[in-house]
Q: What sequence folds into this?
């Protein structure tokens, strides 16, 4: 019932403004929302933000004060597991678990945030003016908005959001997935790679999709495929795991690349070492990739006995 939702959202907006002592006619809000939603096909959550910012301007209200006092954002940070409703303003502390390469030019960063209760995907738009976040660091996210899409909650950072470093410790809850199988392939982007110093994206031919030609920062990683006949799983190993598994350090990889005058030699060497061997890998499944936490050799001769154990999921 679209109209029910519009009424409910209108009431919420009215109440928020009432908290800063501005009385607004509910039917005016309903009317504005209806035009945006029904005539212009704007999603309700966007329409709600649009109407709110218009009202802020009309009534000359400082948005920062409004969002701080109107209960728009929850003053007390919540836990990620509590983020279940669509289009809710919220605040929480989280650690940046992983950053992905943005697929759209308007996106500044996207990736996964986590705390001890769960994980959530986030997106910051360039237009939000949000700071660039670093993988592994903890931040306080204030006045961000939840968005429900295909039954999954994600977080949008907007112009009214505030992201500041958080000094506390946050351990991310992990839903571990374990897969046993042979490493059958190392994919493009394995071995010695360079990342953009601005956004951490891996460079293609020395250029960042976003920042163009930059002085890249070296990194090591493995993007591989584990296959056991029943399951084919893409896996990603970070520098630390790659170094431990292959015995090739970042400095060693640079030497190999220099000697052969080809950085691809590093991935070739790693492939020669690893492809065809069996491993037991555990990690966190994020979209199609398993972000590996631990990888250990697996004896192929016991493979037959472990058909039932191919994919074990721990809570
Ligand atoms: Zn970049």
A:
């Amino acid at each position: 019932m679209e109209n029910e939702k519009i009424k409910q959202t209108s009431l919420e907006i009215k109440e928020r403004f009432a908290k800063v002592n501005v009385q607004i006619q509910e039917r005016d809000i309903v009317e504005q929302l209806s035009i945006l939603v029904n005539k212009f096909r704007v999603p309700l959550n966007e329409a709600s933000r649009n109407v709110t910012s218009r009202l802020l301007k009309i009534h000359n209200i400082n948005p920062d004060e409004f969002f701080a006092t109107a209960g728009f954002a929850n003053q007390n940070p919540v836990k990620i597991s509590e983020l279940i409703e669509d289009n809710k303003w919220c605040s929480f502390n989280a650690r940046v678990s992983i950053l992905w390469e943005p697929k759209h030019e308007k996106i500044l960063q996207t990736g996964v945030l986590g705390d001890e209760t769960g994980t959530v995907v986030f997106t910051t738009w360039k237009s939000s003016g949000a700071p660039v976040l670093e993988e592994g660091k903890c931040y306080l996210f204030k006045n961000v908005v939840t968005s429900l899409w295909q039954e999954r909650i994600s977080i949008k950072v907007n112009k009214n959001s505030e992201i500041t470093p958080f000094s506390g410790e946050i351990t991310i809850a992990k839903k571990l997935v374990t897969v046993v199988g042979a490493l059958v392939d190392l994919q493009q982007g394995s071995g010695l790679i360079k990342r953009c110093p601005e956004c951490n994206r891996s460079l293609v031919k020395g250029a960042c999709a976003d920042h163009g030609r930059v002085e890249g920062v070296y990194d090591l990683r493995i993007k591989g495929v584990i296959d056991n006949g029943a399951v084919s799983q893409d896996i990603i190993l970070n520098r630390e795991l790659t170094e431990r598994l292959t015995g090739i350090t970042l400095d060693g990889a640079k030497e190999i690349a220099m000697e052969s005058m080809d950085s691809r030699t590093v991935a070739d060497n790693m492939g020669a070492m690893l492809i065809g061997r069996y491993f037991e890998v555990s990690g966190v499944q994020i979209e199609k990739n398993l972000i590996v936490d631990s990888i250990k050799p697996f004896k192929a001769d016991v493979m037959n006995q472990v058909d039932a154990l191919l994919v074990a999921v721990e809570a």
Observations:
- Residues 196, 198-199, 201, 208, 210-211 surround zinc ion (CB under 6 Å).
- The chain has three domains: 2-69, 80-165, 176-313.
